[in-house]
Prior knowledge:
487 residues, alpha+beta, YaeB-like fold, Endonuclease, Chain A, 4 domains, disordered C terminus
Amino acid sequence: MFKIEITKNFLEEWTNIQDQKLRKRIYDEYIHDDSNKSNIYPSDHILQGYNKYRLYTSYLKKTSKNLGPKRVLYFKKDNKIILWKIIDHDYEKLSIDQVKYAYENLTQLTMVGEGNSKQVSNIDFGSIDVGNFIYTGRRKIGLRKGSTLRKFILNRAARKNNTITIVSPYLGTLLDSDVSIKNAINKSIDNDTVINLVTRPPKILPEIPMRNKLIENLFNYKKQKVIRRKLKVQFKTDNPENLLKCACQGAKSEKLIDKKNRVMRLCDICKRKNKKNNKINLMPDEKEIDTFFEVLSRLLPNRDQGRIVREYENKLGFNIYFNSSLHAKLYYFEANPSHEFATGKERIESEVCYVGSGNFSEEGVKNKIELGYKIPSSKINDATNFIKLLIKNSKSYNEYFGRNEKQILQEIAKNDFNDLKARGHVFTGKYLFNIIKKSVTRYSRLRAELREIKSDDFREKVNNRAKYAINYIANSNSIESSSVLNK
Length: 487
């Protein structure tokens, strides 16, 4: 019977294997074996041409047609099996000098100590973890194998965890589009898992910048052509600046399109003037423009940072933190100690952590090309220290929204007013009030519970906040607030 020794070269090649299943199989079947044996496998045989050095080859795994099967090469010497190399078809390129040198210097090449137990040379092979790459959208670049970020999140969130920490500056609509991940997160909350979400604070954009952002997204991406086509069908244009109406008070009839691609709603009098090519006094069609942006916001991906925040803010054990300087992406899972080991073959690591480029969004987890790394267990403490410091230097949900509400409303109103002023907009009381009210409504929705939003009290609360914001602007800019509120 033979005992097993391991060369430094074998150990190095083993730790560099990215395929976790293959690395585990080598550990289970070659390094950690409970029985002494003459061969590792009955099918093992001496490599042709190397009988003198008793160099054996052991079939391991078929990797590809081009490379041939992966093999383990080992020497037999003095009642020992000495694991030397993990190699594919390149074993045919081995020179006799390489083999001779390795055989004659095995005492220098092998690790100190021997044995077939889990502990070899004071190294716990079962605990060695070198990490591995984790991908999103790998098939788009022709990468056929590799762990995916979605699978990594699902596998870990489905376990019983003490803590889950998600660090993501941008939050998309992942929990709306991926039911499996949403169910795993909700199940974790039901199992008393503490979930920490660290993200950037939600931006309470005033109306004009929000609309500009929608238009920018509409024209910046090729895949938005379908959306532009839908808008042209409904509004006869994909540019809201082309939506006009006549300035007179008469009833408006059907839409007309002129040579400049402007879509005009005209009264009967202006319609006749248009036929005679007479000048018509035109102004923005506010009603159509509002409808246009409502439709556009539904068609474009919803990028409202508040959706996940709003759904989970009041759930016990779900902690939300805001940090305006955040750009890091990290996913950390700490398993419940009683479930660290599964009942099957798979060993569940007590702590795992991903760092990389993927946000907690549909694009970051499923669609875009992202690259991350599951860090080695030896570096987990560095990750947990980073998380502690990040949370310490971030604002909790209550701290962030604990500012004086009047200050927030003043800031919203000021932003809207200054945007309109910069555009040289002619102020009409009702239009100014509606613009500010929409921004105040978004702010109010962000802070309210879902059931509260549907109530009449919520509408009254929004109106009161909007009136306060308008009064503030009126007093700051010498405008009569009554003329704004009553029009």
